[in-house]
Amino acid sequence: MRRCPALVLAALALPAAAHADDAYLFDHPDSARWLSGQVNVIGQAQPGFHAPYTGGNSFRSDDNTAVSLVATVFAGVELSRNTALVLTAESAAGGGLSDALGLAGFTDLDVVRNPTLGPAPYVGRAFLDQVIPLSDIRTPHARDPLHLLRSLPERRIEIRAGKLGTADLFDVNASGSDSHLQFMNWTIANNGAYDYAADTRGYTLGVVVEYAAPCWALRFGELAMPTVANGIDYDFDFASARGENLELELHDELAGYRGAVRLLGFANHARMGRYRAAIDQFELRQLDAPDVTATRAPGRIKYGVGLNVEHELPAGVRGFARLGWSDGALESFAYTEVDSTVELGGDVSGALWHRDGDRAGLAAASNGLAEDHWRYLGLGGKGFLLGDGKLRYGRETVVEAYYTAQAARGIFVAADLQLVANPGYNRDRGPVTVGSLRLHVEL
């Protein structure tokens, strides 16, 4: 009987030289307990660019620099061959260019979108991972800080419950999901139109249930939404506030090279505003600018879909693509201000030039807004990220290239260059060029 390749569930903390002896600075014995850490520092610089006007939520047009720092401690224990507990504590310091405002495809995924929170440590994840075996055949499983079980049944139900990262489990891509070693841009490391349930730090509360078989998997998540757009507090009125996520994953081999296709759907229930209603209020009452927050009502539902494709190619090359769409009638609420996206990219292993721990990547994403959304911004409205005061609409396009080099055991350095055309969907401003240097240490 033909056997399909093992399911790929890339963790955000997984080093580029995954599971190699030198992936971590320290040895991690094969025991039930896990303790590790990571530090990620990103410095970014942006020269000035053309901008005839600037609004309260604009990407600033003068020369700017910024440094972000994220430090994480990963702890956990394998309670049995089918049960594990995972806990992470984190601190996010520094900031992003323009306080992470003005771009839908912002240039540093490490930046917390509320700069007032400061660097105080917090619990990032705290969840139970429970496997229910459906077959007697078990396969070894390479561990990492978020996946502690050392073997998994070929067929199983897996339940994760507690405080989670939605993007740890949905829309995962081996080439474009790890901002600590791969791409840094919000709309390249994730599907920009996936307005996934999360607080402003990127975490949520809930349950994800997955059925996994040799050739496919199906996962469903019921997750908490924030009380307001980009908020830090969760809305516990689950009857009218929750995020529902469903993803089907198919994976196989072609001529010895692995590939996967993921079909995603989500429905966010939350107290959201409607752009068309904000425009109508603006025109009727002759306000200075429309305000979508003044039109919020509980129980509104925002839908979206996504397609995520990846495949290995010869010579250590991997290619990937994403498509995404979400209902642009209701306000962007949890991730970023994107209603449609098309993304194409790839990476190559440094083994091709005898640098096994290195990797280089190139990707592009084209992001768009629904008509009500861009008209709202054009009339002077503000979203939680965007607002130039007015707008000559055009799709925001991001191109990003990086090179990550393994400098020593557990230490990775990277250079990254991003070009953003029509920043904030505004053809009157830009283009923007951002250069980055990154230091990543796996402890």
Q: Can you walk me through this structure?
A:
By secondary structure, the chain is mostly beta strands. It has one domain (33-442): Porin (Beta Barrel). Helix content is 6%, strand content 45%. It is built from 4 helices and 18 strands. The protein has helices at residues 166-169, 186-189, 275-285, 371-378; strands spanning 33-46, 64-80, 83-94, 122-133, 138-140, 151-153, 156-164, 204-212, 216-223, 242-254, 257-272, 297-313, 317-326, 340-349, 359-368, 396-408, 411-421, 432-442. Strands 1-2-3-4-7-8-9-10-11-12-13-14-15-16-17-18 form a 16-stranded antiparallel barrel. Strands 5-6 form a two-stranded antiparallel sheet. A hairpin with a 2-residue loop joins β2 and β3. α3 packs parallel to α4 (371-378). The radius of gyration is 21 Å and the shape is globular.
